[in-house]
Design goal:
The complex is a heterodimer of chains A (about 250) and B (about 260).
Chain A lengths: L1 H23 L3 H13 L2 H25 L6 H39 L2 H7 L4 H40 L3 H11 L2 H27 L4 H32 L3
Helix pairs in contact in A: 1-6, 2-6, 3-4, 3-6, 4-6, 4-7, 4-8, 4-9, 6-8, 8-9
Chain B lengths: L2 E6 L2 E6 L3 E12 L2 E12 L3 E6 L5 H8 L7 E6 L2 E2 L5 H8 L2 E4 L11 H13 L4 H14 L15 H13 L5 E5 L7 H18 L2 E6 L2 H7 L2 E6 L2 E6 L1 H5 L4 H9 L1
Parallel strand pairs in B: 5-10, 5-11, 8-9, 9-10
Antiparallel strand pairs in B: 1-2, 3-4, 3-6, 6-7, 11-12
Helix pairs in contact in B: 3-5, 5-6
Classes of the chains: A mainly alpha (about 250), B alpha/beta (about 260).
Chain lengths: ~250, ~260
């Protein structure tokens, strides 16, 4: 237990250091580069997953609604599920897997091969360059990716609806726009920014404190993914309770 | 200029005290229960190549990492270029680090960057050099010094061990450091490449007038590069002198070292 609390204290100090370094020396160019890596290079995987999730969710939900004669509610159901929960969760979990392992392994291998020490001894502030930029990139890009996921998932859902009911695109998206509120969109974006921050901080922390050679790198990548995923579910649960106060 | 005769473990050395660039006194460092450095005392003088020789685990690398604040010492005093290392804030420490080049055992090249980008990185971030012509000129000069001009666009994964070492040295030289710290510069290299690296270390001292500390357990490298040699045994600097003096010292551990090498 004391070891766990000690680790939590270290993570808290790491978060404080990240925030402090954001104001001390902000690496704008490298942050843009990291945004490109986080955002652009995740597009295919996230888009593919979102598209399939949209199709599957629509196909699974339709029989239940049809048994109540409420098939016309399908666009509303899917859009609320996607925007409120499914979109952020799919994006968060995929990013935790893809980006978390990438950041954890990259920083981990830099640590064990003394590349971070090399930056340190040349006076180049590696913390700002490596950690702050990655945390900022994941925090800023996750909401953007969530919007992308939502749109692709809804397109997938529309194709499914269209195949069964021959519904028009305009009608489908009219239903969608009526059923989702600004609160849904806003809370989803804020929540996903927290997902991104958690993925960035946890992965950077695991990578930056890697010890034990190549096995340590593997452990850092694994820790990044597992702990990020746990945090995503915890944040999702907490945010749900919080958002319900405003509904 | 005041000359100072130091009596150290039976070996006499002549130095000018006012040209001391590094002074380490009673340095101590432990990792958990393992005491690595018990009482290390070192001086490095301007324009000198000092070799720190010793078996693995005697704290050679820890000593130079303490000098640049990569590892915090438990006790003792470390003075580098007039900076009291243990009392520096992060800004002062970075100012010191910009004057000290550190060549790592594994070269520590940034493997996501090409050789050119590896050399650009400290120039842009430390000196604020962004002019393409100036960058090109400085990079090619540094690569010329280590004889690897044609490797400028290669990635670290495409380089041999010896080439990596030389690029690592070029990356530190590009900032014109006053002190160079070499951590096991010939480890894992064949004798011919080791010889080239040793020649390079001597060449750097002669061309750039740097003072250097070379950490090694390679007797051939110590002989070729060192003006003076300090031997660490069990976390203490047990012997000090020129290569010839140490060869005749009759110390049992050193005898074993010489005979093995």
């Amino acid at each position: 237990m004391s070891k766990f609390l000690l680790e939590l204290a270290r993570i808290a100090r790491f978060v404080a250091k990240t925030v402090r370094h954001f104001f001390i020396s902000f690496e704008f160019r490298e942050m843009i580069n990291q945004c490109f890596i986080v955002g652009y290079r995740s597009l295919f995987l996230i888009g593919f997953t979102a598209f399939i999730a949209g199709i599957v969710f629509t196909k699974q939900s339709r029989p239940s609604l049809a048994s109540f004669g409420a098939e016309s509610w399908l666009p509303s159901l899917v859009s609320q599920a996607v925007v409120r929960s499914l979109g952020p969760l799919i994006t968060g979990l995929i990013c935790a897997g893809k980006l978390g392992s990438n950041i954890g392994a990259e920083l981990g291998s830099m640590k064990v091969s003394e590349q971070i020490d090399a930056m340190e001894v040349s006076g180049t502030r590696p913390f700002s360059y490596l950690v702050v930029t990655r945390v900022m990139a994941t925090t800023l890009m996750l909401p953007v990716l969530v919007v992308y996921t939502d749109v692709i998932a809804l397109v997938g859902s529309y194709l499914m609806v269209n195949m069964i009911n021959n519904s028009s695109l305009q009608l489908f998206f009219n239903e969608v726009s009526v059923s989702i509120t600004y609160l849904d969109i806003f809370s989803s974006l804020i929540k996903s920014a927290f997902f991104g921050f958690a993925i960035g901080i946890i992965s950077c922390y695991a990578g930056y404190h890697t010890t034990g050679g190549t096995s340590g790198v593997g452990k850092a990548a694994n820790t990044s993914v597992v702990v990020s995923m746990i945090f995503i579910f915890v944040i999702d649960l907490v945010s749900l309770q919080f958002i319900n106060l405003f509904r | 200029m005041m000359l100072h005769r130091e009596q150290n473990k039976g070996v006499n050395i002549l130095h000018s005290e006012d040209k001391r660039v590094v002074s380490i006194r009673h340095l101590q460092k432990s990792f958990n229960d393992k005491v690595v450095l018990r009482d290390v005392n070192l001086d490095l003088y301007e324009g000198e190549n000092l070799v720190v020789l010793g078996r693995s685990g005697t704290g050679k690398s820890v000593t130079i990492k303490c000098m640049v604040g990569l590892i915090n010492a438990d006790g003792g005093d470390i003075n580098v270029l007039g900076y009291d290392v243990q009392k520096l804030n992060i800004k002062e420490l970075n100012d010191l680090r910009k004057q000290v080049g550190f060549s790592f055992q594994g070269s520590a090249l940034y493997d996501s960057m090409s050789v050119r980008q590896n050399l650009e990185f400290p120039l842009k971030r430390n000196l604020g050099v962004y002019d393409p012509d100036e960058l090109e000129q400085r990079i090619m000069n540094a690569l010329d010094d280590v004889g690897l001009k044609n490797a400028v666009d290669l990635m670290p994964a495409e380089l041999s061990g010896g080439m990596k070492k030389r690029i690592g040295i070029a990356r530190t030289l590009i900032l014109n450091p006053k002190i160079m710290l070499y951590d096991e510069p010939t480890a894992g290299l064949d004798p011919i490449t080791s010889q080239e690296i040793n020649d390079l270390i001597v060449g750097v001292r002669d061309k750039y007038k740097t003072s250097s500390i070379i950490i090694t357990h390679d007797i051939a490298s110590a002989r070729q590069t060192g003006d003076r040699i300090v031997v660490l045994i069990d976390g203490v600097n047990a012997l000090e002198g020129t290569f010839g003096e140490l060869q005749n010292s009759g110390h049992p551990e050193l005898e074993a070292f010489f005979s093995y090498n």
